[in-house]
Amino acid sequence: MPALSPTMEEGTLAKWLVKVGDKISSGDLIAEIETDKATMEIEAIEEGFISKLIVEEGAQGIKINTPIAEFSDTEKFSEINNDESNKNVINISKKEVIEEVKSSVIETSDKDLTLSNNDATKKITVREALRDAILEEMEADNDVFIMGEEVAEYEGAYKVTQGLLEKFGDKRVIDTPITEHGFTGIGVGAAFGNLKPIVEFMTFNFSMQAIDQIINSAAKTLYMSGGQMGCPIVFRGPNGAASRVAAQHSQCFASWYSHVPGLKVVSPWSSEDAKGLLKSAIRDPNPVVFLENEVMYGQSFNCPISNEFTLPIGKANVEKNGSDITIVAFSIMVGKALEAANELEKNGINVEVINLRTLRPLDLETIINSVKKTNRLITCEEGFGYSGIGAEISSLIQEHAFDWLDAPVLRVHGKDVPMPYAENLEKLALPQTSDIINKAKQICS
Amino acid sequence: MNEKQAPKKKSNYDLDLLLKLNEQMLLIRRFEEKAGQLYGMGKIGGFCHLYIGQEAVVVGINSALKDEDTMVTSYRDHGHMLVCGMDPKGVMAELTGRITGYSKGKGGSMHMFSREKGFFGGHGIVGAQVPIGAGLAFSHKYKNEKSICVTFFGDGAANQGQVYETFNIAALWSLPVLFVIENNLYGMGTSVERSSSTDNFAIRGEAFGIENKTVNGMDVLDVREAALEAVNYCRSKQKPFILEVKTYRFRGHSMSDPGKYRTRDEVAEMRKNGPLKALQKLILANGLNESKLKEIDNQIKLKVNEAADFAIVSELPDEAELLKDIIIE
Description:
heterodimer; A: CATH 2.40.50.100; Rossmann fold; 3 domains; seven-stranded mixed β-sheet; five-stranded mixed β-sheet; 22 strands; 23% strand; B: two-stranded antiparallel ribbon
């Protein structure tokens, strides 16, 4: 099973385009593979004869690098099994090994539907939760529309907008040219004109092209107009590191946007976060920067199915109660914090894990209340530590809860380097669960 | 400015129209003179970019618009606000940073808005208003409003990348936006020859299929004629159009401009052919006498003085304003 995207972990063998005995040449199409993002045809890269199709058509959840077929140099298949040296395994992956992202609640099982009143939940991916949020809000309000690169006909570079073009048409689901600065400004203008645009950045790295419009136009105009010019707009897309896409595609911009008055900054972790917070962001009369994470898109969580469900912006969520130490995190780091908490329990350290959900305005009260209970704090973020979210929280806690601290606040964060490409270096640059565990032990000893 | 053009007979304009144009241009002129004076007295701070010399541009364009059309421009914006019907008192009070200003004293000269009057700023970043204007046009089209958005920018902004991103999208999506390039020959202290590889800005949309026209901005009737055609084009065809208006500012880029990049003689020569003088000459030729014109001028001066008095006696914003209007609760 070939890896067909940086974050793909498994795929579905949608269709075989060859059968046993077929002669194949380099470049021949041999199968259709369905990933979490798209259905793609794969080509042979060597010549020979198909001797065995290992994976059946329609098989789902095939891990990358799993052999899916065998081919042989010779047409005489009967000999194949006796001649191991002649047997080759088709494996046309880029040999990427994706770092396994673990989370306490991640499984890609069937969507089980819990049937009960308004609290009914269903297991869906973060990607589906985002799509549901956009779809429901577009159904509820004709002034909501979505624009961005590949959001319409391609159905989203990461398939977040799947099905929306078909449902709402090209007036409200709009493909833009690759001109972030221009289309972001147009979105801001449309918001000044009382529409409610959702502007998708293919990744927040590209929002750097448009940051003037986000900061100088969207964030500041309400103030500069004495309260006249609201700008109800959502800027959303994947933020932070994906996998093996290196420095220009792997940066967390949480602290950049959180720095600016006039913006709200939200960063979901689970499907519930994604749906509830995105719906609130779309309804919010202010510009909201909505920082998603590509690695999380394919992960599944239970999520309320009601289209009335929202989560308040500015409210953190205590994901796990504990008494010995508080760990605050957002986005993908919440999963790592929960993992660390499970490990630390084994060492008798009882951890409280706070999912920040919103970075501006920060729910300082929830953090302070937790610190008053645990007297120890660790902050986690994937981005750079310098001038980061952790630095801010650390400072706020020493201002507001200094007397409650029994140990210095420690920060877990990405290394102070542009993201490297090599697998081992990338792993070193990103904060890992083990980093959280080590820091926690350091201040709990 | 189109010196080669033969002088046209304009006797077929009705006097009421000429007087209305005169009144608006004169209001801008006197308002800006007063603003310059208040700046000199230390009543206005920061940057203050005067529109003196360019009045015919916005007045001519505005005369072709409907009330429901919208307008957006950069920071040389006082004239645009006045023709949109914003109260000179509120504009002047914003210049002096008072609570009675359009932005409660929090925006200043460069950042003023009136949703009610269809004026969407007042933007301080050169060129940033261009996609915003296209976005407003997008909202008009989305809501089937048949309004257009007039997006003003200068020869300086015309070299910004986002202008071309916007040209492309405006043409691609057929947005009813009229781009008015106010070419006053200088982007701050840099002349067009020193900043631009070619000096014909109007044709810069041709690669995107946007039609264009260039007009003499020192003649308000020429601007009006061109605007009527351009506005009608944008509205009826639901497409963008570029109108380059050749103009000249008589004052510095801002109040703190030493003006060393151009000669006094050049400015004096341009002033001789100023847009107000030309219009008033025409009005006199149409039968109005000098004393009547003087009377109009005096009325406008009175109005501007009232605005200045209001702007000076109004209260500073309350300290509590500091933390208001950051986000909508």
